[in-house]
Design brief:
This protein is mostly helical. The protein has 6 helices and no strands. Helix 1 crosses helix 5 and helix 2 runs parallel beside helix 3.
């Protein structure tokens, strides 16, 4: 068995991290909120949870949500800068079932959530996630077509 190095957590400045690194964290932060929302909404079967979650967490949904957040000017300047860093990050993985442009928008979306989480802006994460959930459930991204 491999020994795992013990880590000491420290406060970190998210401005020093790459967009990809922020997106790595942001993906988990956003998905946890969505999974909790679905479970609290009464969906408990794993296969149904997975299918329903894609309405919120797929690259296409995230690309549409971040585009709408920008269209409605709901992001701060720092959040927009973080989005652009995530979107413009060089990727070493291939976009799965989506275009590169959609994947890049999605990465930018996730970077914002990672950035806010590291800054411990929990209220802002909740506010933006609640907006995303409401927008998806009201059909607010249906007219955004991302392939």
């Amino acid at each position: 068995m491999t020994k795992i190095k013990k880590l000491t957590e420290e406060k970190i400045n998210p401005d020093t991290l790459s967009g990809q690194t922020l997106a790595y964290l942001g993906d988990a932060v956003y998905e946890l909120f969505i999974r909790r929302h679905l479970l609290k909404g009464g969906i408990v079967k794993p296969q149904v949870l997975q299918r329903e979650a894609t309405h919120y967490v797929s690259a296409k949904a995230q690309a549409a949500l971040i585009t709408k957040l920008q269209d409605e000017q709901l992001l701060t300047e720092d959040e927009l800068a973080t989005f652009r860093r995530g979107r413009n990050a060089k990727t070493h993985t291939k976009a799965k079932n989506t275009s590169l442009a959609t994947y890049q928008l999605s990465t930018g979306f996730e970077a914002v959530w990672g950035y806010l989480d590291l800054l411990e802006k929990k209220d802002r994460v909740r506010e933006l996630t609640a907006w995303c959930i409401q927008t998806v459930e009201e059909g607010g991204i249906d007219n955004y077509d991302f392939n």
